[in-house]
Amino acid sequence: VLMNQIKNFRPGVLSNIQLRQLIDEGVVSGFPEDCDIDHSAFDLHLGDKLWVMQGGIKGRRDESYHKELNNHKKKEIGESYILEPGNTYVIEIQEKINYNDLVDLFGFATGRSSIGRLDVLTRLIADYSEFYGALPKPDIIVKRSIKTIDLFVEVTPITMKIKIRKGDSLNQLRL
Q1: Whole-number mean pLDDT of the chain?
Q2: The whole model's pTM is what?
């Protein structure tokens, strides 16, 4: 029943009530139950895998980002992990987007304000998206019959070491 209501949302940024409906319906999976949703955005939480990169590598609209990550060594975050200045890291995000029948769902991510004050660059990478900070375009979802996409965050500390833990949030997503 809720899925039909969700399909009838008006265009624009979804409210916290609408976002909670999407989470409750499983459109957004992996979202911790004890986390709040802002007025129009929700935090994305770090998973336990990361990859050290030679620089930023954007996704492609014709393939999953996992294909690119297969060319780099995967590491486990464990208790915590220190990110060194000048290096670029890609970290998996716990949340996933499950499109089901919602092919018109689109979203943009931004870094949390506290991250900018720490002099850290963060950018969301989504499977099948050729743009940083954006979910794939609806035409790609339909063309490839995609049901679920994985999310990643590219992190580059600029001036100081940053200690991260699984579950930390560096970005937020608006749908």
Answers
A1: 87
A2: 0.88
